[in-house]
Fold these 2 entries.
Entry 1:
Amino acid sequence: AQTVTQSQPEMSVQEAETVTLSCTYDTSESDYYLFWYKQPPSRQMILVIRQEAYKQQNATENRFSVNFQKAAKSFSLKISDSQLGDAAMYFCAYRRGGGGATNKLIFGTGTLLAVQP
Amino acid sequence: NAGVTQTPKFRVLKTGQSMTLLCAQDMNHEYMYWYRQDPGMGLRLIHYSVGEGTTAKGEVPDGYNVSRLKKQNFLLGLESAAPSQTSVYFCASCDRASGNTIYFGEGSWLTVV
């Protein structure tokens, strides 16, 4: 079975600094997707960034980028120039590729990010 | 631009009562999911559906039932609520055309006393 592990329950960063959130996963599949979701206090789930396993290039979305190490099954999120609005719970998630009955999103336990002014 | 809508947003139940959470999506998505979120445990999949008329069990299905009679709606039922079912419930949907990105509702806070 696939699993997603986030080993950092809480992280803190100074405003304008850079922080990296860790995520590892376990799967025997070759076709899959990885995601980072942000959940602010409002509890809304917001997609931050996604990565297709078949792509070697790391995904980037403005100040957010990932370091995808397929062989090591590692998928870390780097937030540059941290802003107060980045404070939230961050979830790493895995989804098997293709369609069918096993196409479900599996989450890690989350990392709570605090941003210090 | 509704996306995924959950009702109700908040509910307090007494132990043993029943209720239904409704999830509606207007994106013509094939796949729909119900998750529960508890402190320190991330989101855990309860049940999911890959199309109208079909449902399947997720990681934590006990105590819940679901139905997908219409493509746009996915109902989550609690037949006899227990305090262990106090949680925040999220509905989500996706389709191949959405690039495998899953869209979430805003959550439903359920307290069982």
Entry 2:
Amino acid sequence: AQSVTQPDIHITVSEGASLELRCNYSYGATPYLFWYVQSPGQGLQLLLKYFSGDTLVQGIKGFEAEFKRSQSSFNLRKPSVHWSDAAEYFCAVNAGNMLTFGGGTRLMVKP
Amino acid sequence: SAVISQKPSRDICQRGTSLTIQCQVDSQVTMMFWYRQQPGQSLTLIATANQGSEATYESGFVIDKFPISRPNLTFSTLTVSNMSPEDSSIYLCSVEGLTYEQYFGPGTRLTVT
């Protein structure tokens, strides 16, 4: 069965600083990989997805993620964080028509 | 991407009662999914609902507690039955896109007292 690990439960960055959120997955083949964001009191919004091709994928709101097969990772990055990026971020893998989520990383942004 | 709405957006219920949550999609979809997000936790899949067939429940979830209806290709309901405070969660429905991503509704925030 597939699993997803987000090692960092909380991350605090200063506004304007760069950001990297880590995600590791466990699955026998290449899965479909996703990052979602959940703002307080909101549903989940899809930031980006990887299913084949270029291992560096661009998403909405200036986010990007890089798929590294050798490390079973799909880390999310943003070069300059804005205060409005404060939210919960979830990495997810779809393998066999089932979406499995990581535990989430809560991002706080300092002014 | 699909536009999904849920009703109610939030509710406060007494233990022992039941609540039915509605999920409406703006396009026809084959599969709809129901998730639970307990306070401060990630999402856990409750069941997958296909139109015209019984819902498929994940381990730890049973039909008697979470009956699901799927009367057509744009609508589904989830009922949380005989509620206890442990059922206090956000309940989300979702649909699958063309490349196995899922699009989520805004969620229903349930508090059981």
